[in-house]
Structure to design on (267 residues):
């Protein structure tokens, strides 16, 4: 499932909720359709071919057929769905200029600045887009040279290129790679780090899967690292747990740490 996902029903309705990409949950959201009567609706996606969510002309409409004949599906139904999807995406791109987002969906591009976002979904941050404060938000992807100053209680799926977060608190990052960075990671979870990704200060946090490639953690304080791979480095660790150190990974200096299935133990 991808943004923007939707459904055309046999009775001619078009179901779209920009907060939801999963088609089953989309049906549950609208609540009046039988989820398992799959011959009575058809799923669709309206997505950019090159991954640039801010370029409306790059979006293509795709029907997802499951082997049924869909004899009820007419050209006018498809045209209606395409028009509605395009209007929604245009509005979501325009939301990047609002400055404040409360329970809204946005795509940020250029020099867009969001001063405060709460209970919102950011589909994509591109170019030099900036968020000063994000609370209770879902951020699908940070790209290019984008930045967030404070992210609190957020789910962030991908931090890519040279994107950066100054302070991450009570949040979950699924992946950080390339030259992406976090200055302060507090009481949060990062699933995995790749490329030249960097965290300056990791405090009471956990790296759930592992750090790989040439990733760097400058200061690991009261935190848990599940696995270190490749040439990953921790400059200094204190009062932390590191479960597996493999390949040429290195902990340069440590104090009151425990490493399990590793080369050293210091209790």
């Amino acid at each position: 499932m991808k943004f923007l996902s939707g459904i055309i029903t046999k009775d001619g309705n078009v179901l779209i909720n920009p907060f939801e990409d999963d088609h089953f949950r989309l049906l549950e959201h609208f609540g009046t359709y039988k989820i398992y009567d799959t011959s009575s609706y058809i799923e669709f996606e309206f997505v950019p071919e090159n991954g640039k969510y801010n370029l409306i002309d790059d979006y293509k409409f795709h029907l997802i057929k499951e082997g049924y004949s869909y004899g009820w599906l007419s050209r006018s139904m498809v045209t209606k769905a395409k028009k509605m999807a395009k209007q929604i995406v245009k509005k979501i791109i325009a939301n990047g200029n609002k400055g404040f987002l409360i329970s809204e969906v946005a795509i940020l591009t250029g020099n867009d600045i969001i001063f405060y976002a709460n209970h919102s979904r950011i589909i994509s941050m591109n170019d030099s887009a900036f968020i000063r404060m994000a609370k209770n938000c879902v951020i699908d992807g940070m790209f290019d040279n984008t930045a967030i100053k404070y992210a609190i209680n957020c789910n962030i799926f991908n931090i890519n290129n040279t994107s950066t977060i100054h302070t991450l608190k009570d949040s979950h990052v699924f992946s950080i790679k390339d030259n992406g960075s976090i200055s302060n990671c507090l009481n949060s979870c990062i699933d995995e780090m790749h490329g030249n990704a960097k965290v300056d200060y990791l405090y009471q946090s956990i790296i759930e899967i592992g750090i790989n490639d040439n990733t760097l953690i400058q200061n690991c304080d009261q935190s848990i690292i599940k696995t270190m791979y490749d040439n990953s480095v921790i400059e200094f660790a204190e009062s932390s747990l590191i479960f597996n150190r493999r390949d040429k990974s290195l902990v340069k200096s440590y104090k009151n740490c425990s490493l399990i299935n590793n080369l050293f133990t210091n209790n």
Remarks:
- Residues 97-259 form one domain.
- The helical segments are 23-30, 75-94.
- The mean pLDDT is 91.
